[in-house]
């Protein structure tokens, strides 16, 4: 500051607290005289303005305050006021954003709870095949019961199960012509000692025999065995796997399935038995329901079975796992 007539002041930065408001943080050294002496204190914009006015009142008429310095101090006052207003605005904005976030979280939680029992589709409704992938266990949801038909058991005394390398099986056998004719499909059920099951399809040949070579089982290969076999006249559920271009690469038909969550096994090969390239693949299921209508379902579409909250975030149970609410693409009835 410029020259000031200090006859009414004490110390290098002293002023009477009766003439101006003082921030609570600046009261160090206050005495009975009402004067404050605290050179290191922080002043708010009101105190800064008061000081400037006092300086103008007590300036030496013979050596008035420099105009340039006055403009500088006025600019400093303006900057201080702008900063103060900005701080207040930012505080209000943070408070508003916090309230909005809490409101959105509460709304999301209510929406998730209301969606229990409905069918939802996740955003990532596709399989990602990498170069080192060998086999996929695909979870599918069948919303309605498939149309049922006659099921005939097959004698498995002549069936054989042999290992083909470390991770594959060969299955062969002969079928009575009275049960299945050449060209018809039969189903062989495999089990392991852990209780896991898998049904494999086979085509009966002209000599009434069949052979499945190089099958990659979903059951434990070390304890796998043939449990039973049958022929079914029921309507099959057809699973079709498409590449990103929308071209079908593999079709699998399974009979005697029931409604609900089901798992199919894909060995990453196309209909010709060749491994498919890496990339995204989509799975669709289609079948005739008990009411005679066509039923379609897709991989990634499952009913929401429950809701839980972790760190304020809603997670929904679907397809055998917990999914973030924000990862849901669509909800249907």
Largest sheet: 5 strands, antiparallel
Number of strands: 22
Do you know the CATH topology of the largest domain? Immunoglobulin-like
The proportion of residues in beta strands is: 35-45%
Note the total helix count. Answer: 2
Sheet/helix structural class: alpha+beta
Q: So what's the CATH class of the largest domain? A: Mainly Beta
Radius of gyration equals 40 Å
CATH architecture of the largest domain: Sandwich
Unreliable runs: 1-34
Number of domains: 3
The helix fraction, in percent, is 10-25%
The separation of the N and C termini measures 75 Å
Overall 3D shape: rod-shaped
Account of the 3D structure:
The chain is α+β, with helices and mostly antiparallel strands and 333 residues long. It folds into three domains: 88-124 and 301-332, no CATH class; 126-145 and 235-299, Immunoglobulin-like (Sandwich); 151-232, Immunoglobulin-like (Sandwich), CATH 2.60.40. 18% of the residues lie in helices and 37% in strands. It contains two helices and 22 strands. The protein has helices spanning 45-57, 67-114, and strands spanning 14-16, 35-37, 119-122, 127-129, 136-142, 151-154, 160-163, 169-174, 185-191, 197-203, 209-215, 225-232, 237-243, 248-254, 260-266, 279-288, 294-298, 301-303, 306-310, 313-318, 321-324, 328-332. The strands form seven sheets. Strands 4, 13, 14, 16 and 17 form a five-stranded antiparallel beta sheet that branches. The chain has a four-stranded antiparallel beta sheet with strand order 6-12-9-10, with no helix packed on it. Strands 18-3-22 form a three-stranded antiparallel beta sheet, with no helix packed on it. Strand 19 and strand 20 (313-318) form a beta hairpin. Helix 1 (45-57) packs antiparallel against helix 2 (67-114). The protein starts with 13 loop residues before the first strand and ends with a strand. The relative contact order is 0.15.
């Amino acid at each position: 500051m410029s020259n000031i007539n200090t006859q009414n002041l004490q110390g290098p930065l002293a002023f009477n607290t009766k003439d101006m408001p003082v921030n609570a943080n600046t009261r160090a050294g206050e005495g009975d005289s009402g004067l404050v002496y605290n050179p290191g204190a922080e002043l708010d914009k009101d105190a800064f303005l008061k000081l400037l006015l006092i300086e103008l009142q007590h300036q030496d008429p013979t050596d008035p305050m420099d105009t340039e310095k006055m403009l500088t101090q006025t600019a400093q006052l303006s900057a201080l006021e702008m900063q103060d207003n900005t701080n207040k605005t930012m505080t209000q904005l943070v408070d508003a954003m916090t309230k909005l976030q809490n409101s959105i979280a509460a709304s999301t939680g209510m929406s998730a709870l209301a969606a229990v029992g409905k069918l939802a589709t996740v955003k990532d409704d596709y399989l990602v095949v990498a170069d080192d992938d060998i086999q996929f266990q695909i979870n599918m949801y069948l919303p309605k019961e498939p149309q049922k038909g006659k099921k005939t058991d097959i004698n498995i005394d002549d069936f054989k199960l042999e290992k083909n390398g470390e991770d594959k099986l060969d299955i062969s056998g002969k079928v009575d012509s009275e049960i299945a004719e050449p060209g018809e499909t039969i189903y062989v059920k495999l089990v392991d000692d852990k209780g896991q099951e898998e049904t494999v399809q086979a085509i009966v040949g002209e000599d009434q025999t069949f052979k499945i070579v190089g099958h990659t089982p979903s059951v434990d290969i070390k304890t796998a065995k043939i449990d039973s076999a049958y022929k079914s006249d029921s309507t099959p559920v057809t699973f079709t796997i498409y590449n990103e271009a929308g071209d079908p690469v593999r079709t699998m038909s399974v009979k005697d399935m029931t409604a609900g969550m089901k798992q199919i096994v894909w060995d990453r090969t196309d209909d010709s038995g060749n491994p498919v390239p890496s990339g995204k693949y989509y799975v669709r299921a289609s079948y005739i329901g008990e009411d005679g209508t066509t039923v379609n379902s897709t991989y990634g579409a499952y009913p929401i079975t429950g809701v839980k909250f972790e760190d304020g975030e809603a997670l929904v149970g679907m397809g055998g796992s917990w999914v973030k609410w924000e990862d849901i693409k669509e909800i249907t009835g």
